[in-house]
Design a protein that fits this description.
The chain has about 350 residues and is α/β, with parallel strands linked by helices. The chain contains ten helices and 17 strands. The strands form four sheets. Strands 3, 4, 5, 8, 9, 16 and 17 form a seven-stranded mixed beta sheet that branches. The chain binds NADP nicotinamide-adenine-dinucleotide phosphate and zinc ion. The site of zinc ion has 5 residues, from loops.
């Protein structure tokens, strides 16, 4: 199937119109017309080759919401016309212990990412959601709950899933004390989800200007991370801290904020962090952990939970031709709190990117 998209062609070049072939439908495939796609900081990291593993050209985007156009003959879970969603994964081995547990993100053979991955059958590079269509095996296609606002659902697929998973793994519920470092796309979803689970939530931010928004989203407290007095006063007051900071940073100031047996879970920065002081870990039996995205079953659970609890991201809708400007704003943390591309603004290109 011929489709069109916006692609990154090189790290220093703006995204530009691009056409390519989606694979012909296999028996268990679903072809989706993409209606909306959220803009994750991982899209920007990939387009700019921040992680040194980008192969160009690449079409990024893994917060995909659309409508089923066509299904392969063996598909049982979805039918033409359904509203569906695709997140950060499009395949996994399906036979290891982790896949059997529904933790495909932890697949022993490595999951196949929605963009920047390699198709397990054809060997072709996978291309993401800044495109008109996508073809995905049915097991990796999520159901958008009936009545959910399609224009806002996209960011749940990555920002929502990535923050919901550690909240569930560490059993957050009424009485839990949760800290969230960084109030961006992931951070604002962590606040909303933790509040909906009944936790008391504190935002740890560099930006005083976000305090009133944090309160509106349901946070109980707001701490400026550079305010040492406030940080000292918050010592030993969290069970779980979710760290969404996208760049290399120092964890040491945050570790004393954990109570005994508390956990700081990194979901942001991938790669080296500043050296940490182990003393607060030893003295408080505190832990530093990490978490990546969520399995398919848990992602569906999160979507259904959000529908029940009326949890949706705060979004700023953009046209596809505003994507480069949106990236500049994302880099400056100037987004409240997730850009979503209205894919109706993506039209078939007249001229190709060279
Ligand atoms: P985002 O919207 O840019 O939000 C990041 C927030 O972190 C900013 O709003 C800002 O909040 C804070 N921040 C930014 N730069 C900082 C710095 N230099 N020092 C301290 N704080 C800083 O990004 P996002 O989409 O939420 O993604 C966050 C990170 O998670 C990215 O690195 C992304 O690749 C990663 N990610 C990981 C997974 C996973 O599976 N683990 C999934 C998706 C994304 P304040 O203004 O409040 O300080
Ligand atoms: Zn993402």
């Amino acid at each position: 199937m011929k489709t069109y998209a916006y692609a990154a062609m090189a790290p220093e070049r703006p995204l530009a119109p691009f056409s390519f072939e989606r694979r012909a439908l296999r028996g268990n495939d679903v072809a989706i017309e993409i209606l909306y796609c959220g803009v994750c900081h991982s899209d920007l990291h990939t387009a700019r080759n921040d992680w040194s593993w980008t192969n160009y050209p690449v079409v990024v985007g893994h917060e995909i919401v659309g409508r089923v156009l066509q299904v392969g003959p063996d598909v049982t879970r979805h039918k033409v016309g359904d509203h569906v969603a695709v997140g950060t994964m499009v395949d996994s081995c399906q036979h290891c212990d982790q896949c059997h547990k529904g933790e495909e993100q932890l697949c022993r053979e490595g999951n196949t990412q929605t963009f920047g991955g390699v198709d397990r059958i054809s060997g072709e590079p996978t291309m993401g959601g800044y495109a008109k269509h996508i073809v995905v095996r049915e097991e990796f296609v999520l159901r958008v709950p009936e009545g959910m606002d399609l224009a806002k659902a996209g960011p749940l697929l990555c920002a929502g899933a990535t923050t919901y998973s550690p909240l569930r793994v560490w059993n957050v519920g009424p009485g839990s004390r949760v800290g969230v470092i960084g109030m961006g796309g992931l951070g604002h979803m962590a606040i909303k989800l933790a509040v909906a689970l009944g936790a008391s939530v504190t935002v740890l931010s560099r930006s005083a200007s976000k305090e009133s928004d944090a309160t509106e989203l349901g946070a109980d407290h707001f701490l400026i991370s550079s305010d040492n007095t406030a940080m000292d006063k918050a010592a030993s007051s969290f069970d779980l801290i979710i760290d969404t900071v996208p760049t290399k940073h120092d964890l040491t100031p945050y570790l004393p904020l954990l109570d005994v047996d508390g956990t700081l879970c990194i979901v942001g920065q991938i790669g080296p962090l500043d050296e940490i002081n182990s003393l607060p870990l030893l003295l408080g039996r505190r832990r530093v952990a990490g978490s990546a995205i969520a399995g398919i079953a848990q992602t569906q659970e999160m979507l259904d939970f959000c529908a029940r609890k009326n949890v949706l991201p705060e979004v700023e809708m953009i046209r596809i031709d505003q994507i480069n400007e949106a990236y500049e704003r994302l880099e400056r943390s100037d987004v409240r709190y997730r850009f979503v591309i209205d894919m109706a603004t993506l039209t078939e290109p007249q001229t190709e990117a060279a």
